[in-house]
Amino acid sequence: MFESIVYKNAIGPGPLIDVGALAEGLIFYGRVVIVGNTGTLKDLLARVPPFILLSLMKSGRIEFHYLADQTGVSTTQTSDGRDLHDLLCFSSPNHTIERVGPELFKAAAGSTGQARVGSSQFARLLRPLDHSGFDQGSILQSLLDSASTEASVAALIRIATPGYVQSSPLRFRIERMSQGFYVDTNIDFVRINEIYHQLVSPEHSSITKAYVLALLQGAYEATYFAATLDSEVAVTPIERVVQAKTVEAIVRRHTQSESQIEGFVDLTLSDARAIREAVNAGVVPFASIVKLLDSADKFRHWLQEQPIETGLLRAYYQATIKDSWADRLPGKSARWSVFTGIGLTADAFGTAPWGTLAGVAISAADSFLVDKLIKGWKPHQFVEGDLKSLFSEAKSKMSGK
After folding, report:
1. What is the strand order of the sheet 70-77 is part of?
2. Is residue 9 a contact partner of residue 34, using CB atoms and an 8 Å limit?
3. What angle separates helix 50-58 from helix 97-109, to the nearest 10 degrees?
4. Are 260 and 313 in contact (CB under 8 A)?
5. Which long-range contacts (CB under 8 A, 24 or more apart) does 52-59 make?
6. Using an 8 Å Cβ cutoff, are 129 and 228 in contact?
7. What is the pLDDT of residue 5?
8. What sign does the dihedral 350-356-361-364 (CA atoms) show?
9. Which of 49, 310, 85 is nearest to 181 (CA)?
């Protein structure tokens, strides 16, 4: 459970990497990987203090895999005025680890001697990754399935431009040629961009046939990262709607993990997005997350030992009362009532028959009883201690109390 997670560039305006989600990943996952390019590094170094990021990489808490090449979609206008497209990979000698790593670190950290030493260490810790095993021919073959491609494009457009109405059934069909392919579509791109540019600057992007193709290719790219790095991948809303079996598999895996974490955080911190929002708002600085990680080590190790089928909340409940006097109480209701007294409710399991017995429930504030309940280390100690202390205070600040 929660063994490894990959974060990659988000699609659309805003930060490329959600640092709040990254902080959450560092707390819950045993291995945290970032896949990115020059833009990713620049964005990350602007929002996570350079030496904090360097320390996380040196300790192995974060792996950064730098892309030596990029995927894209080429477009060439033919003599008859049609756009001929192709899927491609490209690279630039100006965007190598040796050049980009030190430059971006020094730009963020300053021109001090310490920054120069740090920039050299930072560049050495960046791991190269390319698309040598990324089969774009297979992706094109998948896109030839008009039914699934059109369903994906329709869903994608609903996300990007919710006000756009397609007057007739959407058509987006690939016509393969000996060199590249054409797209036959009835999408009104002028109207779509009138809506899209109300939310997204034209300087950032416009929706075109090539842009739609690039988004679809990006979803398949997520499956490549998952396989190459043997990891779960944090997926974007775009990937969630691409209707292809290979993409659906990684979406399902991450959605299940995300749902479990949100339910757990909501139950223990009373807000499913408490960690992400506090970090993204700057209320909890990333340095505080780093300090939290040492005390979170046992918690993460415990998570990785739990069977996936058990579920996070049930595993947490079982671990908290295991080998305690509560575990020996007669029946599930009595045991559960003790658990509700230390911050959890039966609603978490949908177990309405497990009522709380007023005479048995205890208060988490009663440190003597809690100490009696918890013999040795239990995951509850980290959650009710350092985690809740940090983010409860942050919640109070954000609510203006």
Report:
1. 70-77, 83-90, 181-185, 172-176
2. no
3. 130
4. yes
5. 52/286, 52/287, 52/290, 53/122, 54/105, 54/118, 54/121, 54/122, 54/125, 55/290, 56/26, 56/290, 57/122, 57/125, 58/121, 58/125
6. yes
7. 97
8. positive
9. 85
Residue 393: the pLDDT is 78
Amino acid at 99: R
Structure tokens at 168: 């007739």
Q: What share of the chain is helix, strand, coil (3-state, %, to 5)?
A: 55, 10, 35
Give the span between the Cα atoms of 370 and 373, in whole angstroms. Answer: 5
- Position 400 scores a pLDDT of 64
Predicted pLDDT at 192: 97
Provide the pLDDT for residue 357. Answer: 38
Classify 110 in phi/psi space as left (phi over 0), alpha (psi -120 to 50) or beta. left
Distance (Å, rounded) from C-alpha 215 to C-alpha 201?
18
Closest CA to 64 of 100, 114, 93: 100
The percent of residues above 70 in pLDDT, for the chain, comes to: 85
The type of residue at 264 is F
pTM: 0.84
Which regions in the chain score pLDDT beneath 70? Answer: 321-376, 400-401
Amino acid at 36: G
- CA separation for the pair 179, 232 (Å, rounded): 35
Task: Report the pLDDT value the prediction gives residue 392, as an integer from 0 to 100.
Answer: 80
DSSP states of 188-247 as a string? -HHHHHHHHTTTS-TTT----HHHHHHHHHHHHHHHHHHHHTTSEE---HHHHH---HHH
Q: Which long-range contacts (CB under 8 A, 24 or more apart) does 299-303 make?
A: 299/27, 299/379, 299/382, 299/383, 300/2, 300/27, 300/28, 300/29, 300/30, 301/30, 302/379, 303/1, 303/2, 303/28, 303/30, 303/379
Tokens 């730009």 sit on residue: 107
Give pLDDT tens digits for 299-317.
999 999 988 888 898 888 7
Question: How many whole angstroms separate alpha carbon 200 and alpha carbon 225?
Answer: 28
Contact 217, 87 (CB under 8 A): yes
What was the pLDDT predicted at 341?
A: 45
Residue type, 128: P
Which residue ranges make up each domain of the chain? 310-398
Structure tokens at 231: 């990891």
pLDDT number for residue 221: 94
